[in-house]
Amino acid sequence: MSGQPLGYVSLASQKNHTSLYVRFRRLDDLPLDVIGREVARQGVAEFVAKVRAAQA
Are the CB atoms for 8 and 22 separated by under 8 Å? Predict the structure, then answer.
């Protein structure tokens, strides 16, 4: 161990892919209702528009 805090959320970005990684011990530890609600807040068209704007 390095003595540094262990991150529990991270972002990864590659050429055509962005991911969100969350560390958890058990599936029951994840607030799936909250995750689902946050994912649903943004529609596909809005997401695509933001990605295209960021790439411009």
Answer: yes
pTM over 0.90: no
Distance CA 49, CA 53 (A): 6
Tell me the C-alpha to C-alpha distance, in Å, between residue 39 and each of 10, 20, 49: 16, 11, 16
- Between CA 16 and CA 48 the distance in angstroms is 12
Rounded to whole angstroms, how far apart are CA atoms 55 and 37?
26
Q: Running along the chain, 56 residues long, what does each successive block of 10 average in pLDDT?
A: 60 74 78 83 84 87
